[in-house]
């Protein structure tokens, strides 16, 4: 009897899960598996299956030898170096500010979050105008401060800076709202006790807030890392990978190779290399986590 | 409290899903839009079918891009007229914007859903023909006594001949000519451009016409790959030599690119190379429309855009240096190799490209120039003004340059990207023109050797 009931419950669970699982298999797992196969082939999207040649590891070798391809990997790391530290520090700062009890706080919180829910396409187009080298608002404001702004999106050096800046502007709301949730999870008892012991605000921040916030911080850093490796929308719209390839990223190259140059095999190899990079970095983060992340219980 | 293992699992799952998410995202977008579009198309078709229940017509699928952006209704009336004449054929057509066209078509073909008949520009025609995806029309043409290739402009017709096989029929063509603002010329008392002009006369006039204080430029041409291959041809250069070897860093090419840059940076008769306003889409067309450019190299498909300009304008042949050269873009329609409706497809191709009815509709709507040889048919086109000197459109064909697709059509996209990247570097003065073209020569040679 008991066994029968268990069996029925399992069946019910299975039946309810089936549609979702089928979708997952058909639209996620099968394409993933087939992209492994494709990555070892020279498939150009147009040839019949019978005309596909398997060419071993040469697509993977090309990921690291093709200049456009390894430059795009390098560019993603440049993006990361500019983006990660700034968004983490600014995010904490903003979260602390948003954690205050002042009038209209809900309004501030909403304002900070609005860029997050705005479409990347709209954001990119607007910022392209704002960053216009001759008639943009950004350079006008800089000129008020006596600074001659660069032609942001037409310069090999400043284009990436602009992309990083806009990405931070867009993502900072997400980061600070998550950190805010983490902050609110920290019990006031610690601060009361610290005040009684005469701890300064600075040491309260370093010895209470940051350690207790570290699980949330870890989450934010990991998610941001994974997202940064996949920078695409803003690049495609703001600079189209230019000028002279200086903002070309891995996903942008995957897109071009797959759908514009008909090199599906190479694109599949590139995306698996990207997966490998993200996987390794995530594992590395997990290892490092033990050194600095504090779990309360 | 959040459990450590829970976070680990979550992150692992996110890493896996998001790493592949971007690809799948593109795929599913493409698919969903195609299903939407095709359901629209088929509901149209079924509505038509219900009106004529007697016959059992065959349905052919047609994919097009040139009708996008304003000519959808012209296409619709052409298709309806065709269906009225051929009740046994239904055309299930779909209009896709040019920017997404190649991607969409590629996806359809790779999914085994190739349209029976579709539109291709010359460059893509070479690629698709090279991949053996197109139906060889030669036997059908020789069997069809009612069809005469000389109906078409020979150049445009032959553009769709691949290695001796006719694999498509030309539908329309376009080129690029020199547009000029007559009012600005009159104000400065400068003679209008004519066929005898070379770069030197263009520069002389531009220097007189340019008025930096009022933001008026003497002459304008974009700085990109298509302009590059035409301008070097005007100086006797080229991307490939006769046997298909790249000759990108020839002295003639270097001088031509230097001239393109000098117009802006040395003589200041064109917007600066790093002018951000002119990097916005259509900024050049808008500037001409608002009377800020005296001479500009634009495509003839922009005629209707300037119809209501507040000044008088006309067109002329482009000035060249050692010789004349003009862009030539041919659009044609081709049949899929796997089509089961070759007969119906052929009827549609003939009707759509050369039937008097469809040609007249095309001209009346100002869609494009039909590639027919009979000047009497084109008379209606010549008469549409502005511009008055409309015959220039045809005169330009005497000195056309085709897109330099080269010996490996499938590499066309990469070839463009490789050259563009170097042109960008030269444009910002990062490296000299010679260095840039040396680099471009090397990367194109590498590309073709693989």
Shape field of chain B: globular
Biggest beta sheet summary of chain A: none
Q: Any idea of the CATH topology of the largest domain in chain B? A: D-Maltodextrin-Binding Protein, domain 2
Compute the number of strand runs of chain B.
Answer: 12
Overall mean pLDDT score of chain A? 90
The gyration radius over C-alpha positions of chain A equals 24 Å
Largest sheet of chain B: 10 strands, mixed
Q: Calculate the terminal CA-CA distance of chain A, rounded to whole Å.
A: 41 Å
Shape of chain A: globular
Oligomer: heterodimer
Characterize this entry briefly.
The complex is a heterodimer of chains A (297) and B (450). By secondary structure, chain A is mainly α.
Description:
Chain A: The chain crosses the membrane at residues 76-98, 110-130, 158-183, 204-226, 264-283. Chain A: It is found in: Cell membrane. Chain A: It is a multi-pass membrane protein. Chain A: Keywords: Cell membrane, Membrane, Transmembrane, Transmembrane helix, Transport. Chain A: Belongs to the binding-protein-dependent transport system permease family. The complex is a heterodimer of chains A (297) and B (450). Chain A has 297 residues and is mainly alpha-helical. Chain A has one domain: MetI-like (MetI-like fold, Orthogonal Bundle), CATH 1.10.3720.10. In chain A, 74% of the residues lie in helices and 0% in strands. Chain A is globular. Chain A starts with a helix and ends in a 5-residue tail after the last helix. Chain B is an alpha/beta fold and 450 residues long. In chain B, the strands form two sheets. In chain B, strands 1, 2, 3, 6, 7, 8, 9, 10, 11 and 12 form a ten-stranded mixed β-sheet that branches. In chain B, helix 2 runs antiparallel to helix 13 (356-364), helix 12 (342-354) crosses helix 13 and helix 13 (356-364) packs parallel to helix 14. The model of chain B is unreliable at 7-53 (pLDDT under 50). Chain B has two domains: 58-173 and 329-387, Periplasmic binding protein-like II (D-Maltodextrin-Binding Protein, domain 2), CATH 3.40.190.10; 176-327 and 408-449, 3-Layer(aba) Sandwich (D-Maltodextrin-Binding Protein, domain 2). Chain B contains 17 helices and twelve strands.
